Amino acid sequence: MKATRKQHGDGGQVFRITGARTGLAEDVRGRQRRYVISMMIRTVAVILAATLWNVERPFAVVALVAGAILPYIAVVIANAGREQPPSLPSTFVTAPVRPVIGAPRGEDEQPPRDQG
Asked: What is the mean pLDDT of residues 51-76?
């Protein structure tokens, strides 16, 4: 979720949080989802290995090895650190500076000449 908060007034500072990481609850939910999917694939692989053991033994061995390795891979993926934002956003974005209008010149004053 990306949000921007603007502060109007004399300060003119704009706070930007578009580069913020996802919330902790959403991050945990995503990890749990990946873990459950990995464990479902492991369960299918073990059941397939048991079913095909007397029919197609090489395929059953591959499924059994996959079923043995998947828990380790699933735990490593689930315990991996939170993702890092692509780049850290600047905290403050300065408001554009408005040009200053000069004081009016008197009638007897001449504009400066170009010396070029």
From this structure: 90
